[in-house]
Amino acid sequence: MTAAASPVPRTPWGLWRSPYLWLATIHLLGDTVVVLTSGLLVLGATVVVLAGFVLAPIGIPLSRWANRWVYDIAGWERARARITRGQEVPALVPPPRTGSTIDDAVQAVKDPGLWRQLIYYVILFWLAIGWLFLVPFAWSVPVVLIPLPAYYTHFAAAQAQLGPFVINSTMRASVVAVLAALFLLFLSPLVIRAASWFDGWLVKELLGPSETGVLAERVHQLVQSRQQVVDSVEAERRRMERDLHDGAQQRLVSLAMILGRAKNRLGDKEPAVRRLIEEAHTEAMQAIAEIRDLTRGLHPPVLTDRGLDAALSAVAARSPVPVRLSVDVQPRPKLTIESIAYFVVTEALANVAKHADAAEVDVLVEREHDVLRVVVRDNGRGGADPARGSGLRGLADRVAGVDGRLTVDSPPGGGTTLTAEVPCG
Q: Name one Pfam family in it (predicted).
């Protein structure tokens, strides 16, 4: 957020006790120096940006360099605001390099940040002129008028001229002195505070990102962090699959083999012991089958090794309902996106087998530019409702986790079409 780092006193007494008042005064008077230095440098850099683009190809690198220079100069001004006012303003971000010299030069000319910063110094020029009159008036004129009674008594003639006003008595001189003292004590700090606030508002609006830009950057950061979480969860799922496959599953296989050998060696002896060994062997084989199904559901190795086509072909071959499969996903998307598409298909086929009473299923997986589309269509009885099925809700949540969208079209008696679209750029 572009806000002052420390609170600004609101009352004149608070301002008098705070260093903010004096630092703000120095800042306002320093605007003139900034205009004559940084402002002229920014103006020159802007001219170089425009002229460099025209003087292609020699001037194009100068155009890019001058654009970056403007951002560096604006950084000096933000640093000055931070030192004198405690104002923290996030930096504007220059346009990213495209890898093409011509495109970079075009971006340098079209860059809105460049023109915002130039506008800042143009406005600051006129403000600096105003501050040269306002700040000395706020501090010096009351100080000059406070000793007016003594001046009138000892040095003035019968009357003294104060602009359009005539001071011809000690009483009038005293009234003016009192008003000047009140102005100095109460109004001068507020005048400086108001001028400093406007100066700071200008820095925030033109040298810092807009609120829309801040929100867009925040959204971008959240999307990136969410993608990292999704990728880490997917990596953890693959690690669990490897651990189960290489650890627990192999131990159970070894146990089943030992039990099998024990059963064969025992022969017809000890029937009760043989039955126990057979039961243990059967339980071990069931545990192996369950772990194999579990690891296949977590992340099949064939998906990592050979991609969606091979993994979904294996799923279609195991499906109790005939499946017509079409996969075209070149170039290959990330593993996280492939996993989501894989689980959409496997969950949809499982639902078809359990609930749809369908004779066949069509599965289409295709990539169109930066979107991976998965369509699972059956000719069953329809009537699927994501609101009533936890499986479909889970699929929708998983697809939404990567900014995807899942829709279900399932009229009663008309079959079900499940469509998932997942960005994979």
A: HATPase_c
Q: Which CATH code, of 3.30.43.10, 3.30.565.10, 3.40.50.2300, 3.40.50.720, is assigned to 301-423? A: 3.30.565.10
Q: CA 383, CA 294: separation in Å to the nearest integer?
A: 29
Q: Which of 44-48, 195-199, 266-270 has the highest mean pLDDT?
A: 195-199
Q: Which of the pair, 66 or 138, is modelled with greater confidence?
A: 138
Q: What is the DSSP string of 12-79?
A: HHHHHHSTHHHHHHHHHHHHHHHIIIIIHHHHHHHHHHHHHHHTTTTSHHHHHHHHHHHHHHHHHHHH
CA distance 342 to 350: 12
Three-state DSSP at 140 gives helix
Separation CA 77–CA 200 (nearest Å): 11
pTM above 0.70, yes or no: no
> In sequence order, which ranges of 111-155 are alpha helices (DSSP H)?
112-145, 148-154
Domain assignments of the chain as residue spans, ordered by start:
3-209, 214-298, 301-423
**Distance between CA atoms of 238 and 300, rounded to whole angstroms?**
8
Name the nearest CA neighbour of 392 among 379, 412, 410: 410
pLDDT in tens, 337-382: 888 898 899 889 988 888 888 999 999 999 988 899 999 999 988 8
pLDDT in tens, 220-263: 666 666 666 666 666 666 666 666 666 666 777 777 788 777 77
